[in-house]
Design brief:
By secondary structure, the protein is an all-alpha fold. Helices cover 78% and strands 0% of the residues.
Length: 172
């Protein structure tokens, strides 16, 4: 009888030990992936509502450069916002057409072409934005600006300059 109790207790200890080890490993793995994801997000996104302060700090912009940056940034935001809204509409239209009982292939192709044209426009205003920023920078600032833009496109080949207030819900 005593041997049976000892065996049961030994198995309980083994089960509890395995459970604790798996819990600790699971926690460590998830924390590691969260930290890795956070560092990737920080590297690829510039806080939307603090973009001027971010560039001022990262590039060491003078007050005059900050004023010029604000003008360039405002123009870029207006253009990008319009294109982004159009892209959202086109993507929704594409999905609506795809899920129809009998999707119209020519309409799908037309929407795809329009989406591609909007992406091209967005890339054009993005490089124009970069070139405008580059013009107001000195040589050292240009190097830092290039580094910022490289980090923005390196993660997924898409520059992400978030719209205003997007980061508020994430605690940024």
């Amino acid at each position: 009888m005593m041997i049976a109790k000892t065996k049961i207790l030994a198995w309980l200890v083994v089960i509890l030990l395995a459970t604790n080890v798996s819990t600790i490993l699971s926690f460590a793995y998830h924390r590691y992936t969260e930290l890795k994801q956070e560092s990737n997000e920080e590297m690829t996104q510039i806080p939307g509502e603090q973009r001027t302060r971010y560039f001022k700090k990262q590039l060491g912009l003078s007050p005059g450069q900050v004023d010029l940056f604000r003008e360039v940034n405002r123009s870029y935001n207006q253009q990008a916002r319009g294109i982004t809204h159009e892209l959202e509409f086109l993507r929704a239209s594409l999905v609506d057409e795809m899920i129809r009982d009998t999707p119209d292939q020519s309409r799908l192709k037309e929407l795809s072409v329009q989406i591609g044209e909007q992406h091209a426009q967005l890339k054009t205003i993005t490089y124009s934005f970069y070139l405008s920023l580059k013009k107001l920078c000195n040589d050292e600032q240009k190097e830092q600006l290039a580094h910022i833009f490289r980090s923005l496109v390196s993660a997924d080949q898409n520059i992400q300059l978030p719209q205003r207030n997007r980061g508020k819900h994430k605690g940024q």
